[in-house]
Specification:
This is DNAAF5 protein. The protein is mainly alpha-helical. The protein is built from 45 helices and no strands.
């Protein structure tokens, strides 16, 4: 040993290094710096024999290591570079570790930062990494010191130091795994601090270090890091997410205790399968296949029966999806009970991205679990319901895809027993959304025996009579899904689907819902090969009416049944004409004067619309005449009786409007009119003096139609009863009404037939002519022109009397123009008229 030291000393002296070594302690910074420069040039850079270099390194190491603490940064830098150079060049680096490692601990492993320079701390960590690379099992002795250093440097403020420290920690783990196992836990905490650093490269380095440290260290730390790694799945950096993917896949493949952590690691890897970056998603998918294959190989004996007898392709697998291998499916089968609850919880997380990721994971889990999903249907459906009400569209879309998988893999009997009662108890758009998606995922031969129960549930009043647009959209989605799946097999439950669609059309307030409902109704007709929607109404209107009829005596304005009745009749078309015995009693009940004003208004509006289009509705079969008298007497006239109030006035208006529509459509015969003429005139004469302008106007038009219908069959006494009221209306404050009255008089005079005794009723004619002549001098030229036409017709009744009355008032008129023209007309009348 003495001889070795002598040789080393002589080598140092022979190389002339002793003076440089002595200068390392000089007070002058420049001298110290030059000494370090000289030592490098005379040793490392001269490429000396390795054995010689080893001896020199051992001799000069201690004084050089002291320079690691030199107050001058440049001197410290040169000292670090010199040691690093020696370590790279000497044949036996471990020989120097008893001196180098403690120095590194002193510079890097203290509670407070000893080395103030970031760059030098980086160089020191790089030196430590070099030591790990250049040594073997000898490193185990210094593991505690190295861990002490890395605990500090992994959380160093300088990002590059963090990255290098992470790389160093991973190398230590690989180099001495059997010893590192005892200390790996000490590095987990600082690595978890660094995993959320603002620099993505630092985060990647930390994830890779965690991967390796736990792989070769204590596997129980998986529990501590999983939640932190899960957060990195939301990282903005693709490289970070890829690192997590590689970690989870690597652990599932090679972690010694991986079977204990399958339920923790599988969600990490499968979450990456739906990553937005194709490279990450593809890599995750490849790793998952590899994990499944390895699991299958490791458990080949246990899975032997399944391997031998499992079918390679399920009968109905989602289009565009690759079926997972047996190992993947078995892994999910055995761990779903532990994974699913957490996934369902995260579907309700307050962070949107968490919910989106959970929804994506849900789809992948169900794709791998296949029919084993059946075991978890109750909590799964509850989670799907909740997620389908999510305000985020991405969440809803992904959850809907998951629900379609349920339809694909789970027997209808199972989910029908859960969904249909839930829908009856508390109907909601979210439940309908799930049901529609499940139906879309089914095949007809699987679900056909359950479609009747599904359609019966959808047609329940509490289910199909909601007014919220989103609910209605989902209800229509269910119907569309049923039509798509069943196609020509829809006929047995066509009535139920028709009921749902008509109810939705009746109660919707959204144009989009209405359009979709009408399109779906057409689709219902098409799948049954019907000629059109009207054939659906012809088939089902009576059945729907039978459902509505029992409650009609209790209807109010807001009753869904009333609104459905209204829509059904307006849409049904010609079939209404065949169903008058069922329809009219319902209407008569609800326009009775004892009923609520608003309710009567609604029914009269419906009646008017039907009467206006009578040929295509109530009289499509020509049978309305049988019911016309009853409609007029028991529905219209009883509501024309005067009552105080604005709403009562509106009812009189709509009632007389219905009478006008009935007469205009020619639904009342002369004979029928004459049987009830007195009752009609009683109400119409009263209505001519109504406070509501529109009521007076429509009444004039009704009288016009009535006079035109009855013609000369109109009894003279009745004519004499009507005209005084018409004359009054010529003084109405509405010019529109005055013009209407003039038109009514034009119809009035042709009704005076031969049975009208001119002599007996001369006083009536004289009063009538005088009243009309007054308005021949009206300030409104339209009235004058109308009156001229009326008086020309009136002159035929009694020309001489008319001539006498004109002569009496002509001088009072502002202009004799109209009187002269009227006199000329009388002179031109045929002699037989003059004589009469």
């Amino acid at each position: 040993m003495a001889s070795d030291e002598t040789i080393q000393t002589s080598v140092v002296q022979n190389l002339g290094l002793q003076r440089h070594i002595n200068c390392l302690t000089d007070d002058n910074r420049t001298t110290r710096r030059r000494a370090l420069d000289s030592l490098r040039k005379e040793t490392v850079e001269k490429k000396l024999e390795p054995t010689v270099l080893q001896g020199v390194f051992v001799e000069i190491l201690k004084p050089v290591l002291k320079s690691f603490s030199d107050p001058v940064e440049k001197c410290r830098e040169l000292a670090i570079q010199l040691v690093d150079g020696f370590l790279t060049s000497v044949p036996d680096p471990p020989e120097t570790l008893p001196y180098v490692i403690p120095t590194l601990v002193q510079r890097l492993g203290q509670k407070d930062i000893t080395e103030t320079s970031e760059e030098l701390r980086l160089m020191l960590v790089e030196t430590l990494t070099r030591i790990v690379d250049l040594t073997g099992q000898e490193l185990a002795v210094y593991l505690d010191d190295m861990v002490k250093i890395l605990q500090r440097t992994i959380v160093d403020p300088f990002p590059d130091v963090k990255k290098e420290s992470c790389r160093c920690a991973a190398k230590v783990a690989v180099k001495i795994p059997q010893h590192f196992n005892m200390q790996s836990e000490s590095l987990v905490k600082p690595l978890l601090v660094t995993i959320s650093h603002q620099h993505s490269k630092v985060r990647v380095a930390a994830i890779k270090a965690i991967h390796t440290c736990i792989q070769y260290g204590n596997n129980k730390n998986v529990e501590d890091v999983v939640s932190h790694l899960a957060q990195r799945l939301f990282d903005d950096s693709a490289s970070v997410r890829m690192a997590v993917t590689e970690l989870s896949g690597g652990w599932l493949l090679d972690l010694p205790d991986r079977y204990s952590f399958h339920h923790k690691l599988i969600p990490l890897l499968l979450s990456s399968v739906s990553d937005d970056v194709p490279e990450i998603a593809d890599r995750a998918m490849q790793l998952w296949r590899d994990v499944g294959n390895k699991y299958q190989q490791e458990n080949e004996e246990e899975l032997k029966d399944k391997i031998d007898f499992t079918y390679s392709k399920v009968a109905h697998f989602p289009e565009g999806e690759e079926r997972p291998n047996l190992g993947c499916r078995t892994l999910i089968f055995r761990n779903l009970s532990k994974i699913l609850p957490a996934c369902l919880r995260e579907l309700g997380d307050w962070v949107v991205n968490t919910r989106i990721k959970a929804a994506s994971l849900m789809y992948t889990l169900l794709l791998n679990s296949e029919d084993y999903t059946t075991m978890h249907m109750e909590p799964l459906l509850a989670g799907l319901y909740k997620a389908c009400a999510d305000e985020e569209k991405q969440v809803r879309n992904k959850v809907i895809k998951s629900a379609e998988l349920v339809g694909c893999f789970v027997e209808p009997e199972i989910y029908c027993q859960l969904i249909l009662p839930a829908l009856e108890r508390q109907p909601g758009a979210n439940i309908l959304m799930v049901l529609a998606a499940i139906i879309r995922g089914c095949r007809h031969e699987h679900i056909k025996t359950h479609l009747q129960a599904i359609c019966d549930t959808l047609a329940l009043p509490d289910v199909c009579r909601a007014e919220e647009p989103q609910y209605q959209y989902q209800l229509l989605s269910c119907v569309q899904a049923i039509l798509t799946v069943s196609q020509q097999g829809t006929a047995p439950y066509s009535l139920q689907l028709f009921t749902v669609l008509v109810s939705t059309m009746a109660l919707c307030r959204d144009s989009g819902v209405m359009e979709q409902a009408q399109n779906t109704l057409q689709q219902l007709a098409d799948v049954q090969a019907l000629s059109g929607v009207q054939q659906l109404y012809a088939s089902h209107t009576q059945q729907v009416l039978q459902v509505l009829q029992p409650s009609h005596t209790y209807w109010t304005t807001l009753s869904p049944d009333r609104v459905i009745f209204d829509t059904l009749l307006l849409q049904a078309g010609p079939v209404v004409g065949d169903l008058l015995p069922e329809i009219l009693p319902i209407m008569e009940t609800n326009v009775h004067p004892d009923k609520d004003h608003e309710l009567r208004l609604k029914f009269f509006t419906l009646l008017s619309k039907l009467l206006i289009n009578a040929e295509n509705t109530v009289n499509a079969t020509g049978k309305f005449g049988e019911f016309a008298l009853g409609v007029v007497q028991r529905m219209i006239l009883v509501n024309c009786v005067w009552q105080a109030g604005r709403t009562a006035g509106a009812i009189r208006t709509i009632a007389v409007s219905s009478l006008w529509a009935l007469l205009k459509s020619g639904l009342l015969s002369v004979q029928q009119a004459n049987t009830i003429i007195d009752d009609m005139l009683t109400q119409l004469v009263t209505l001519l003096d109504d406070d509501v302008q529109s009521t007076r106007l429509i009444t004039c038009r009704v009288l016009n139609h009535l006079l035109n219908l009855c013609g000369t069959t109109f009894d003279p006494d009745r004519l004499n009863k009507v005209y005084p009221e018409l004359l009054k209306r010529l003084d109405d404050n509405s010019d529109e009404i005055r013009v209407a009255v003039a038109k009514t008089f034009s119809t009035f005079f042709p009704c005076i037939g031969v049975d009208y005794d001119r002599t007996l009723y001369k006083a009536h004619l004289e009063f009538m002519f005088k009243g009309l002549l007054v308005h021949l001098d009206d300030t409104d030229e339209r009235i004058q022109e109308s009156m001229l036409g009326v008086l020309k017709q009136a002159a035929r009744v009694h020309p001489s009397l008319m001539q006498q009355e004109i002569t009496a008032v002509k001088h009072k008129h502002r202009t004799p123009k109209y009187c002269d023209e009227l006199l000329q007309h009388i002179q031109a009348l045929p002699n037989e008229t003059q004589d009469s």
